[in-house]
Write a structure and sequence with these properties.
It is built from 19 helices and 22 strands. By secondary structure, the protein is α+β, with helices and mostly antiparallel strands. The chain is 29% helix and 21% strand. Strands 1, 10, 11, 12, 13, 14, 15, 16, 17, 18, 19 and 20 form a twelve-stranded mixed β-sheet that branches. The longest helix is centred in the first third of the chain and has 21 residues.
Length: 601
């Protein structure tokens, strides 16, 4: 009897042990990352949103220079560049000569050569690529860039193919010094045999040229095909499909490794568009493995309270704001932009949205930027816009919208009411209307609407808000300049922007980029041009001088106000406890460190 009892107890113990060891079923080979809507542009040049960039980071690779998670731009001499030689010629031009390792491969197993790097420069800097609808700064700063980019010549003087694994670029002396000089020498390869079948690179004393292909036709074909479904790439993953709002990538077995020699550990990565109102709930419920960049306090607290969920945070290298088209309608007037800033209680918006996980900012900066740390006292002293109806009316009285409907009688703020029955007009009898576009299921959109619907009528502004998906918002924001003015509709957008380690506002606000999606706010201001140029024209070692000019730029930004800044915050990456290695930083998101990430029970 005692023996039977011992056997029974032993069997029960074993059964209990097996039950404890089972746990939930976990697919350790696949990572599913939830995201907002993707636009489906998976090659650079078409105004990709941050979620398309995740896909790009996974499928593209082997750049000569890379950014580390700590924010340092370094030469990839582990995987890509076998030898780098630099010299200054007798004209003051600076030559970077790269010798590549000879074991780099595309995901189809074919070799990557120096011709593929030269092809990348020639393709992206070509006027044909621009004609195909793309924007690019690749090759900028090199000798002969303008002549090649503008179609004055079909050869790029500053680019040279030396042999199968050696190429060089020559930075124009007129472009030096440049604070971020090495970005002029940062290039990745493109599969010439796929993007331009039959093409070769021809070299003579006048520079490099793509031969053997009609470049106008080839670029159009890529812009309408490969752009949405890349085939031959060289990153840690290869593109499989983009269907049902999900982009699927599989491990690239030919990937040599990143700048540290690391290779991917997951077999499959899926970026799936999900409802942003329930994104954290979907992690908790196991529908997705991870969502990133969570800013809402209530969501963060919910994730922290769940025992099967990890909340990893870091300061944001960016900011969120009320982005404005400065070339269209009333918002082309600075006083109108300032009046809108005085019609919002930004602190209330931040409290409602971030719940204590961020703070108001007063210009274009993020709390993680070293320049902010250097200038914190001066930045904190910038004008802090608060709700002030009287100030908004005072500013609007300085504009053409200072009349009643007859276009003659001065507008009287005392007559304004919350119902919006009394609206400002100009002398032509046109109403002062601001049309805003925001995304659906977005707490920032909700709070902006709450504030401006209540406060705009008190300043005589008719405010409308339209909701749509993120792709539609980006299309209106980036490309409305292409429309006839009579067809344009939206003046303002709630968005957020993250900065690269090479913070160079020239590319976003200088008039050189007016009429392109890059200068998306369509700013045209000589003082902006002056300061953004001055920030660039420094030696890389002139950190202190750059920091001072950065402060001057922030002060100017707060004055011209192309964006009403709202917040910079802590980002929370929320993931299942079975996901490991998510050591994201302000300068490296999960797609940048994908080779560190794995799943295990």
């Amino acid at each position: 009897m005692r023996k039977k009892l011992l056997l029974l107890l032993l069997s029960l113990a074993l059964a209990a042990g097996s039950l404890v060891g089972c746990g939930p079923k976990v697919d350790t080979t696949t990572l599913i990352v939830g995201s907002p809507e993707l636009s489906g542009n998976f090659i650079p040049g078409f105004g990709n949103n941050a979620y398309d960039v995740w896909v790009r980071n996974l499928i593209l690779g082997y750049s000569t220079y890379v950014t580390t998670p700590a924010g340092e731009i370094v030469l990839d001499d582990t995987t890509v560049v076998k030898e780098l030689v630099t010299e200054v010629d007798d004209k003051g031009n600076k030559i970077y000569q790269f010798t590549l390792y000879d074991d780099l491969k595309w995901n189809d197993g074919s070799p990557i050569t120096a011709a593929d790097y030269v092809f990348y420069i020639l393709w992206y800097a070509s006027p044909q690529w621009k004609n195909a609808g793309a924007s690019s700064t690749v090759g900028e700063g090199l000798v002969g860039y303008s002549a090649y980019y503008n179609g004055e010549t079909d050869r790029f003087k500053g680019v040279n193919l030396i042999d199968d694994y050696t190429f060089s670029v020559t930075i124009d002396a007129k472009e030096l010094p440049y604070f971020f000089e090495i970005t002029y020498a940062s290039f990745m390869p493109l599969p010439m045999a796929v993007w331009a079948p039959g093409a070769t690179i021809d070299i003579n004393e006048d520079g490099a040229k793509i031969e053997g292909v009609n470049l106008e036709e080839a670029t159009q074909e890529i812009a309408t095909g490969e752009r949405f479904k890349p085939t031959v790439t060289c990153g840690p993953y290869k593109f499989v499909s983009y269907e049902n709002n999900a982009a699927t990538m599989q491990k690239n077995e030919h990937y040599k490794g990143n700048y540290e020699g690391k290779k991917p550990q997951l077999e499959t990565v899926i970026v799936r568009a999900i409802n942003q109102a329930t994104d954290v709930d979907q992690v908790i419920n196991g529908e997705v493995d991870m969502v990133t960049g969570v800013i809402e306090g209530a969501k963060i607290e919910k994730a922290k309270a769940d025992k099967n969920t990890v909340a990893h945070y870091y300061s944001r290298n960016g900011y969120g704001g009320f982005f404005i088209h400065c070339d269209f309608g009333p918002t082309a007037v600075k006083e109108v932009r300032h009046a809108l800033a005085y019609l919002m209680d930004r602190d209330e918006i931040i409290k409602n949205v971030l719940g204590g996980y961020g703070s108001v900012v007063n210009a274009e900066y993020g709390l993680a930027q070293w320049m902010y740390e250097d200038n914190k006292d001066a930045i904190d002293a910038l004008p802090h816009f608060t709700r002030d109806i009287a100030k908004a009316n005072e500013l609007l009285d300085q504009t053409e919208w200072r009349f009643e409907a007859d276009g003659v009688t001065p507008f009287d703020p005392e007559k304004a009411d919350a119902e919006g029955t009394y609206i400002r007009h100009n002398a032509a009898g046109e109403k002062l209307v601001i049309n805003h576009f925001g995304t659906e299921d977005n707490d920032v959109t909700d709070n902006v609407e709450l504030q401006l619907r209540a406060n705009c009528p008190l300043a005589g502004i008719e405010f409308t808000l339209t909701r749509g998906d993120f792709d539609a918002l980006l299309n209106y924001y980036y490309f409305s300049f292409e429309l006839d003015p009579s067809e344009r509709q939206y003046h303002t957008f709630n968005l957020a922007s993250n900065f690269s380690v090479a913070y160079d506002p020239y590319y976003s606000y200088h008039s050189d980029w007016l009429g392109t999606w890059m200068n998306s706010n369509q700013v045209n201001d000589p003082e902006v041009d002056r300061i953004t140029e001055a920030m660039r024209k420094l030696e890389p070692e002139q950190r202190e001088e750059y920091s001072k000019l950065w402060l001057e730029w922030q002060q100017l930004f707060a004055d011209i106000l192309p964006v009403i800044p709202l917040y910079s915050n802590q980002y929370y990456d929320i993931h299942s406890k079975f996901v490991h290695g998510v050591n994201t930083t302000p300068l490296a998101d999960w797609s940048d460190i994908i080779c560190d990430i794995y799943k295990a029970k």
